[in-house]
Amino acid sequence: MRVSVRIVVAFILAIMGTVLVAGCQDGDEGTALPGLSAGASPQEVVRAYVAAINAHDMTAGQELSTPYFAERKEGVVDSLFEDAKLSDVVIHAPDPISGYESPDGKRYREAVYVSVSFTLWHSDEGSMPNGSTVWGYMLVRDDPGRPWRINGDGIH
């Protein structure tokens, strides 16, 4: 059986095109991240974000964030991603937020606030002192089929 070179080339180009398109998809558009299922709960996303902080892995933290929040955290001088260690972490149930509008003007169909308590240690106490801390994260998504992403942090 002889296969035409044109058919083989067309097949290879089709496969490459599919791989390129799949590789260019925005992580915020519904794909699961390593260690998280596509349907991960807000608490699971926050748990993964805390693990990224403890691993000093800003890239992983950005993947769990909206583009707005990731960009905002990029220039922080005393970033927790530098040397922080969060222990005794307790992640509380999410509180739904109705009518949430992101500071960048984007509206999301769903938004929740997840409160977190932990013991913090880091060398630069510029914005957050060491010791027992209560903090929280705002998570958003466009619809139930999309993953939750962190869009804000602080005390609610």
UniProtKB/TrEMBL annotation:
<protein>
    <submittedName>
        <fullName>DUF4829 domain-containing protein</fullName>
    </submittedName>
</protein>
<feature type="domain" description="DUF4829">
    <location>
        <begin position="43"/>
        <end position="154"/>
    </location>
</feature>
<dbReference type="Pfam" id="PF16111">
    <property type="entry name" value="DUF4829"/>
</dbReference>
<dbReference type="InterPro" id="IPR032256">
    <property type="entry name" value="DUF4829"/>
</dbReference>
